[in-house]
Amino acid sequence: MKTFNPAYSLAALAAAAMLTACAGGASQPATPVAEAKNQPARPAGGHGLDAFLGSYDANRDGVVTRAEYDTIREQRFRAADTNGDGVLSEAEYVAEFEGRLKRQYFDQGREPDKAYEQAIKQAHVRFGIVNRARDGKFTREEDKAIADRTFKGADTNGDGVVDRNDPPRQREQSGDGN
Predict the structure, then answer these.
(1) In a domain? residue 162
(2) Could you tell me the pTM of the whole model?
(3) Backbone angles phi, psi at 165, to 5 degrees
C-alpha cells in the first residue's frame, strides 16, 4: 500500500498552481469560463482553446491578453525553479508537470495509473525537445520562444488576445495528396 505524504502533495500543488505548461498536460477538459468566473486560473491540461483559457485566464473574463499570459508563465517558471538558479533542470521541469498531473488526477478522483506513468516519461522526452541548447538547462529565453509560438498559435484570428472568437487552427494538408 502506498503512503500519502501531505507535505509533498502540498508542495506539488503549490508549484502546479504557479507553473506553466512548460509542457503539455494530461487530457482533462477545462472548467468552462462561465462556471469558473470566481476561480483562479489553473492548469487545465491538454491542448486547445479550453485548456489555454483554463490555464491562462487569470481574471476569468474569457479573454487571455498577452500580458496576462506572460505574467502567469513567469510566475510559474519562478515557482518551478526550486533552487533559484534562473533555469529549470530536467528534474524541476518534470516535477512541475507531475504536480499539475497529480492535481488533475486528484480533481478527477483517480489514482496514478499506466497513463500517468507514460505522461511522466513523456515529460522527460519533452524536456529534451524544449531544451534547445541541449545543456540540461531550460532557460527563460527558451521558455519565451515557446511562449511566443504558443500564443501566436492560439490567437488564430490575430487580434492580440485569445478568446472564443479564435477559430480552431486548420490542419495543413500534406503536399503528397494525402
Answers:
(1) no
(2) 0.69
(3) -80, -5
